[in-house]
Amino acid sequence: MSRILSVFLVAILCLWTSTSEAHVGSPNVILEGKAGNYPVRIVIRPPDVIPGVAEITIKVESGNPSKVTVRPVFSDIGKKGSPAPDEAKRIHDQPPQFNAGLWFMKMGTYSVDVEVEGDRGHGSLSVPVNASATNTRPMTKPYAAVLIALGLFLFFGALAIIRSAWGQSLVPPGAAPTLRDRRRGLIAVSVGTLFLSASLFGGKYWWNLDEMDYKNNRLYKQVPVAATIQSSLDQLLLEIHIDAKGNRTRWAPLIPDHGKLMHLFLVRKGAPNIFAHLHPAAKKDNFFSVPLPPLMEGVYDFFGDITHENGFAETLTGSVEIPAPPARITRLYTIDESDPNCSPIWYEQKNMNGLVPPDPDDSTTSSFSFDSAGSSAQVGRYLKIVWLNPGNYKKDEQVTLKFQMQDKNNKPVELQNYMGMEGHAIFRKLENDVFAHVHPLGTFSMASQQLFTQKEKVISSKESPATNPSNSFNNSNDMDDHVKSDGFSEVSFPYAFPRAGRYQFWVQMKTSGRIYTGTFHTEIQP
């Protein structure tokens, strides 16, 4: 009994009171959209251990909300099988801001449903969040000392009880213990000591095995990814193989996000940091291939954003050495030597002479022209992308970064949607310990959000349990009514830099059918 109690106390205290190490990357989920008629900014800080508490902040930009509730909805369960909503606590009035905490009890994907009530009626919004264990929590020395003291107290207390049970308790009332009685008590204490010691060592052995299983099988780890370069007809093909055999309990088939199964980002190591945003095509199970644009030879880090049919979104990482591009491909991609952007002009030609056509939404840049303040980037002969609100931002500061494309006369240029969004921003800390692909709506996977919406429709309509919404899932370019129509001139991205240090980031916009990428840099303060 004492061993069970000790192990239980250790487990509770480790999960409840110890502090954790910082996350690697950009784990917080940010959504900037509308819950009915209420413009809101939602920030979710998921726990790094499961079970754990997610911290949620909801800021209502306008309106007078009287009540805000939050509820965790686990994938495949739906709202009917989820706990009742928790009411968020109001902490600010101008603008109204609410805080809440939700328990994530299982590993997987949750949709945090936010509902707002007030003078503008009722509004709701769902935010997909990954729930995965990414860390372990070491026990602090004070708690270790307390547990050791309690353990010693229970150990010697149990021995005292055993000695009394086999010694003095067997002596008749009023009689003095004999030598035999004392010897019997000592033998019982010796046997009890061996039994309790064996129990403690057995419990420690079981605890080590369970901890090893947690680290090896339940702690999130990226699946192994291999990248190779193949050459065919003077064309370089980047092939990516995902080895998911050892992760079948977690790995699930992929669904498209913005119409693509994978968004692949290439960043050249060293100077210049050439950037490419590509969309590999799936050739077979967990095998992708994409034709490379004419990139400068060198070693490239790659980041592949994918979303699974259970809503879990992750980024695969690795590096690959890319050789010099064939002259034929360079000529085919070049429009104008004075234009720093590459464009596959031959894609629209009917005869491609056996070459693998690129995805029409692929983009790359070799433009590194920006001013000393880092507030604008030349992206074409007559075009530039201007950062409208550069500043000395701090770590974890909630900001909305605004950008505008301008012509040679500093006049705004009308923009088009790029893969169903007004634009894309890709943030990378120079040490590669932070990477984030951000949209104007936030940092979450829109494919995951739409998947939850479709599943909820299936569950609420009482369709057959065998119906799988992901089988017919398609979110090509029809995002939702939050996306602007063509003709806008500014794009903004909600974000919070998770670590101090130097960042490089790329902002992508589309106009006149062409995609332009601006390169920026900033120093984030502690």
Mean pLDDT across all amino acids: 83
- What is the helix tally? 5
Principal-axis shape: elongated
Strand count, sense and barrel status of the largest sheet are: 6 strands, antiparallel
End-to-end C-alpha gap: 49 Å
Strand composition percent: 35-45%
Structural class: alpha+beta
What is the CA-based Rg, rounded?
A: 29 Å
Helix content range of the residues, please? 10-25%
Number of beta strands? 27
Task: Catalogue the unreliable spans.
Answer: 1-24, 464-481
Describe the SSE topology.
Elements: H1 2-16, E1 29-35, E2 38-45, E3 52-60, E4 65-74, E5 86-87, E6 89-93, E7 96-104, E8 108-118, E9 121-131, H2 141-166, H3 179-218, E10 225-232, E11 235-242, E12 254-255, E13 263-268, E14 275-278, E15 281-284, E16 287-291, E17 298-308, E18 313-322, H4 327-333, E19 363-365, E20 376-378, E21 384-387, E22 399-406, E23 424-429, E24 435-438, H5 446-460, E25 490-495, E26 501-511, E27 514-524
Antiparallel strand pairs: 1-2, 2-3, 3-7, 4-5, 4-8, 6-7, 8-9, 10-11, 11-16, 12-17, 13-14, 13-17, 14-19, 15-16, 17-18, 20-21, 21-22, 22-25, 23-24, 23-26, 26-27
Helix pairs in contact: 1-2, 2-3
Account of the 3D structure:
With 526 residues, the protein is an alpha+beta fold. 20% of the residues lie in helices and 35% in strands. It has helices at 2-16, 141-166, 179-218, 327-333, 446-460, and strands at 29-35, 38-45, 52-60, 65-74, 86-87, 89-93, 96-104, 108-118, 121-131, 225-232, 235-242, 254-255, 263-268, 275-278, 281-284, 287-291, 298-308, 313-322, 363-365, 376-378, 384-387, 399-406, 424-429, 435-438, 490-495, 501-511, 514-524. Helix 1 (2-16) runs antiparallel to helix 2 (141-166) and helix 2 (141-166) packs antiparallel against helix 3. The radius of gyration is 29 Å and the shape is elongated. The two termini are 49 Å apart.
